[in-house]
Design goal:
With 188 residues, the protein is an alpha+beta fold. The chain has 4 helices and 7 strands.
Length: 188
Amino acid sequence: MKKLLALAFILSFVFGSAQISDFQRADSKYERKKTALYKKYPKPNDLRTKLEWLLTEDKIKTYQEALDKVSEEEKKVIAKDPPVKTKVTKEAEYDKGKAAFQKQLSEAINLDFLGFYSDAYKVTMTFVVDSKGNALDANVKGSNEDVNSFIEAAFYRIRENGKWKPAEDKGKPVSSTVSLPLVFTFKK
């Protein structure tokens, strides 16, 4: 069983790292194409706006594909160490505190290219913290699917910046589902 959990952790790390590079590639591709577009059309016009939106849609699609891929892989890992369904005696905790987690998450989200602004964007993020403290399979529910995808991507960018302490049931570490209501502010 320990070998399976170790293998699951390694696969999770490898796929998580691959996803981060997928996000970085999407960002880099978007910036290169946007720079070329702005050189070709230095002044705003309808064609530049249309082409820029197509670039944005491509970036969103790439992020969503990367998130789907990591979710599929992490579901396999979770199947080997499923979250408990019963009430635990101690909830999973972020080592730096939930406020620090939200701050890191907020700082990792860049929606400037979307032109999305909101004084209070409310979401619920759920994910699994396995019995080893690995955070897996982020899911964000909010009113804008594109924004939700970029919040999920931010989760994968920061998840190695801190450590989650797994939930405990009668003193024994267990896998559990974490649900966090979050509020983000996106201003110009």
